[in-house]
Amino acid sequence: MSTCPHVTESHVFDFTAFLRDVCTDMIARLPELKHIELSRVAFSFVRSRKRTSHGTQATLTPMRFEGGASSGIVDGQRLTVDPLRTVDGREVLYLFHAYVPRFLDLSCEEKLVTILHELWHISPQFNGDLRRFPGRNYVHSNSEAAYDRLMLEFAQRWRAQEPNQQLLEVLSLDSARLQERYGRVVGHRIAMPRLVPVG
Q1: How far apart, in whole angstroms, are the C-alpha atoms of residue 9 and residue 23?
Q2: Full DSSP string of 74-100
Q3: Most exposed among 80, 87, 129, 191, judged by the fewest C-beta atoms under 10 Å?
Q4: What is the rounded average pLDDT of the residues 8-37?
Q5: In whole angstroms, what is the distance from residue 77 CA to residue 58 CA?
Q6: Whole-angstrom distance, CA of residue 38 vs CA of residue 45
Q7: How far is 150 from 138, CA to CA, in rounded Å?
Q8: pLDDT level of residue 1 (50, 70, 90 thresholds)
């Protein structure tokens, strides 16, 4: 087994710890992400039902409603999100899910774009809401292709700054090669938050 800070003594690879470290490095190097406070972002992984390249690779779930409100109207009913808290009791504002092994089987560049795609959804106010664009498609703006071109630009700028090479090395591995080198892939598994009626 190769030495890696994300491998435990029992030779399992802590994927969610690794993902957090990649995001930490991105935020430190890209000023557009400086508003993100990772201590209030939870990372989780979900087992992909099928080993295919198609389908969801990652999602970002906001834990509050528009404008950072603690509740909102859904189908005529006022609801709030069942809260998720950090170990020190602070409210988690965002939940980042990665789908394994589908995410791991992307190319290194695709992994970077996927991670940045989800981080860019975080509101500039870091208030638990999504970044909202004008128009009907407020999540991805009027052009999702332009959104992803911007993420590719961010990924290229991050790589140009010569980040931690071990992070890049792991990102270049697919799921089979990752397990062969470091062992079984594990990590935090957090259920999607429930919407519950207010009061």
Answers
A1: 24
A2: ETTEEEEEPP-B-TTSPBP-EEEEEEE
A3: 87
A4: 93
A5: 29
A6: 16
A7: 16
A8: very low
Which residue(s) pair with 46 in the sheet?
A: 99
Query: Region 137-141: what's the mean pLDDT?
Result: 79
Q: How far apart are CA 173 and CA 161, in angstroms?
A: 21
The rounded distance, in Å, linking the Cα atoms of 127 and 122 is 8
pLDDT of residue 52: 57
Residues facing residue 100 across a β-bridge: 47
For 192, left (φ over 0), alpha (ψ -120 to 50), or beta? beta
Predicted TM-score (pTM) of this structure: 0.91
Tokens of 119: 């981080």
Distance CA(6)–CA(54), nearest Å, equals: 27
Contact 78, 71 (CB under 8 A): yes
Using CA atoms, how far residue 68 sits from 1, 37, 62, 130, 184, in Å, is: 45, 15, 9, 9, 38
Helix (H) or strand (E) holding 179: helix 175-182
